């Protein structure tokens, strides 16, 4: 089977290194290309971004050299799920080939009012960390380590700012296949999750997996298998 690129968008507080386990579990035909937001990981020296349009342009420049070389799909978790959808629309607006499939985990539909109900990024440090802990938004070993906390807090605040100030604009459904997977113990309603259907003219494959917000690490093999199978089916259908 021909190679397929899979662009991976990190969750809030994450970096390109967050997908190392996925890279190890990916089948040989999948070329994982984790993207990096400024201000963390391999781009630690750069300024954190809180403007979604600026971030989308940055990410578009990262994927642009790869969009014509082979078929591709896009996957994102949590904040990365929202950005996956927005980046797809930006890519299509530039006239590039469409992705084979959109994979989203751990987030509600872009139009969900719950995205903006709380302004967690404005909370004082103690309350902010408690809210992150309640949401299972970062591993406990990081939240208990002051040195790691000093590093991760501004990154989390910037990323929460992106999510909580995003202004949804209805631009009509995309004619693309979506798979949306959420954890059974996540702090979100099925009603808000199902709002993803507004973004695709095709029936979305909604799935649930046991676990909290970071169920993606416990189910890495299962999620990677779903992604691989979906891409194989899609390439067979369009004759890639």
Describe this structure in words.
With 240 residues, the protein is of the alpha/beta class. It has one domain (4-110, 171-238): Alpha/Beta hydrolase fold, catalytic domain (Rossmann fold), CATH 3.40.50.1820. Helix content is 39%, strand content 13%. The chain contains nine helices and six strands; from the N terminus they run βαβαβαβαααβαβαα. Strand 3, helix 3 (79-93) and strand 4 (102-105) form a beta-alpha-beta unit. Helix 2 packs across helix 3 (79-93). The termini are close together. The mean pLDDT is 92.
Number of strands: 6
Give the helix proportion (percent range): 25-40%
Q: Any idea what the CATH superfamily is called?
A: Alpha/Beta hydrolase fold, catalytic domain
- Low-confidence segments: none
Number of helices: 9
What's the end-to-end separation, in Å?
Answer: 9 Å
Order of helices and strands: EHEHEHEHHHEHEHH
The CATH class turns out to be Alpha Beta
Strand-residue fraction? Answer: 5-15%
Rounded average pLDDT: 92
Strand order of the largest sheet: 2-1-3-4-5-6
CATH topology: Rossmann fold
Name of the CATH architecture: 3-Layer(aba) Sandwich
Radius of gyration: 17 Å
Query: Quick one: biggest sheet?
Result: 6 strands, parallel
Descriptors for this entry?
alpha/beta, 39% helix, 13% strand, 240 residues, 9 helices, Rossmann fold, 6-stranded parallel beta sheet
Summarize this structure briefly.
The protein is an alpha/beta fold and 240 residues long. It is built from 9 helices and 6 strands. It has one domain (4-110, 171-238): Alpha/Beta hydrolase fold, catalytic domain (Rossmann fold).
